[in-house]
Write a structure and sequence with these properties.
By secondary structure, this protein is of the alpha+beta class. It has 6 helices and 10 strands. The relative contact order is 0.20.
Length: 325
């Protein structure tokens, strides 16, 4: 279950204030000092990978100068601002052995252009359990939109339209991970049931051995900007789906005025796997809650690609001969 939000509210608009907020996220009114009382101010040094930008809290006793994800050298960042902590963790429901089996199943679904023996011939180099971090938020907003559509266009191809609508956004997920790419997080996100989230200590205790937990190393202002951008993208899609008249649209623009915003900071389980096929290294990711969600990079069969290209060229040559007659 997602953690309850603090009871403090903005004195101007009564929007909920989150811990360590200096201004209200809705109206930008400065928050009273009392709103931050009892907040846990956590500061940390961040160990940052120079290649893939993965981030972990630094512990000198760990003596870990190389990235756990890609093996590259890491450098130490000193973060001055307080670090947000995950309110809840979605627990692992997939064991390491299941993740490896999911990788083999995924390899078997990749189609004709992949090596026939990929699933049997690949060897797993490493399997890293990971809690990657994301913001999960609920919001309400007044959305103003403009667009051209084919409705009422008459003899023209397009007609201008505009309108406003109140929209609610529930449990939208915005990735904050640096160890996974944005595309990987986007592919993983639909398979999670965020309602199963548990207190951090409880979920971490049941995680596989060697699990790495990412940090929220993005500053609050940057986090809010990412959340608002996600609301705007989602609002544009929802406006096109049910609010703009007609069946064809172009030049869709939206402006979002937030009415309320409640943000949860959640850590989500995944496995990052490195595997080799004929000496080459590839990366794959398996969802830690649903092993049906697996994807990654995979080799191509050069022989099959050449064969298909040769057949295509032969077909084109035959067509040319027939047309020349």
């Amino acid at each position: 279950m997602l953690a309850a939000q603090p009871a403090a509210r903005c004195g101007r608009c009564q929007a909920a204030l989150e811990r360590e907020d200096l201004r209200c996220a809705i109206c930008a009114c400065p928050t009273p000092a009392a709103a931050a009382e009892g907040a846990a101010h956590v500061k940390a040094d961040i160990l940052r990978c120079d290649t893939c930008a993965a981030a972990m809290a630094y512990a000198a006793e760990a003596q870990a100068p190389r990235c756990a994800f890609c093996g590259s050298v890491m450098h130490l960042e000193q973060i001055v601002d307080p670090i947000d902590q995950a309110d809840a963790l979605v627990p692992f429901a997939v064991a390491p052995a299941q993740a490896q089996a999911a990788l083999r199943r995924w390899m078997g679904t990749l189609g004709f252009f992949r090596p026939k023996d990929l699933a049997s011939g690949a060897t797993v180099d490493s399997l890293r359990p990971l809690f990657w971090v994301a913001w999960v938020f609920d919001a309400t907003a007044l959305v103003s939109w403009t667009a051209d559509s084919d409705a009422g266009s008459g003899r023209s191809a397009w007609a201008p339209h505009a309108g406003q609508t109140e929209l609610e956004f529930t449990r939208l997920l915005v990735p904050a991970s640096r160890g996974l790419t944005h595309a990987e997080c986007t592919d993983l996100a639909p398979a999670y049931d965020v309602a199963t989230a548990r207190p951090p200590a409880e979920a971490a205790a049941a995680a596989p051995e060697g699990t790495t937990a990412e940090q929220f190393d993005v500053q609050r202002s940057a986090a809010r900007k990412a959340i608002v951008s996600a609301i705007e993208r989602t609002a544009a899609a929802r406006v096109q789906a049910g609010h703009i008249p007609g069946s064809k649209f172009r030049k869709v623009k939206v402006a979002v005025l937030l009415r309320s915003l409640v943000t949860h900071r959640v850590a989500l389980p995944a496995y990052v796997l490195a595997y080799r096929y004929r000496g080459k290294l590839f990366r794959a990711v398996v969802n830690g809650q649903d092993d049906a969600c697996a994807f990654g990079a995979a080799p191509l069969s050069l022989a099959k690609v050449v064969l298909v290209a040769g057949l295509a060229l032969a077909a084109l040559a035959l067509v040319g001969l027939l047309l020349a007659r």
